């Protein structure tokens, strides 16, 4: 059997330089938002739910991925904070992907707990930091 080589992906070069304000907004010296830890935890929960809900037959894994995209786009359109949210989602997804290969009672328990925690974290962030 012949091994199939994956093509190397090369990121396209940006067509233009970032706008004057964009560099400062997304640079490495940008201070973290006070809610970064909570949003990263929420992203990790969404990743776990994306995997486990599909595994247990709910079929809405793509919806949880879309919720992350909405959160990411609303909070961090670009830069390292956006990358951290994506990494947290992937960590949550792949952590359960390695552990669970079938839906078990414990997987259903994790789903129930994650749904509750996601609601608490989202509510807490919205209550403390949302602009009325």
Describe this structure as you would to a colleague:
This protein has 132 residues and is mainly α. The chain has one domain (34-129). Helix content is 66%, strand content 0%. It has five helices and no strands. Helix 3 (61-75) packs antiparallel against helix 4. The longest helix has 25 residues, at 105-129. It is globular and about 40 Å long.
Quick tags:
132 residues; mainly alpha; 0% strand; disordered N terminus; CHP02301; TIGR02301 family protein
Task: Give a short summary of the structure.
This protein is mostly helical and about 130 residues long. It has helices at about 20-25, 35-55, 60-75, 80-100, 105-130. The protein has one domain (about 35-130).
